[in-house]
Structure prediction request, 189 residues.
Amino acid sequence: MPERTVDFGKFGARGIKGSDAVARKLDELSDGIVTPVTVRRGLMARLRYLARTEHSRRAARDAGLTVTDRTLKAWLDEKRRPSNANLDRIDAAYRQVRRHNVARHLLQRLNAGGGTRVELHPLNQSQVPRPLQRMVEYRTMNVRRWDRIVDAWETGDQQGLDDAWEDVIVDLGSQWGQYEYVTNIGFAA
Prediction:
């Protein structure tokens, strides 16, 4: 059981789970289209990415974008505009297909050279009363095996990602529980 994070935020500490921060950073590293789906340019880029090949159309269907080819063609030709619900489905399908397409390459980059250096930024205790604050410092560590983390991220398995990240932060020694929640995790690939 991690140190005192059983009831995280009870005294005003702020942060996110370390595994969520890792997923956010992996999304940032893999994200190709930054224009929002609500803007014409972002929508068209996502639709072209999802409709490029038969394989990508099948992956989009598997990801939850279940529209006919006729509807997809009408969207691409700009004869019709997707509803807000379909815009959300397009964005979610794009993210899932993109994760699948870049996971192998990202894994190779993260594991190269003996692993990747990771920066752990501690949780924010500015709202915690002074007597209850604890000394939590900025830490760095080298993550050598990213396989389980990237696999769980690719499939969207939150519990698997939590478990894989917990196995990594145990390498911090007796202080690992202090880094279950963080403000940010940084690494480059």
Summary: The mean pLDDT is 88.
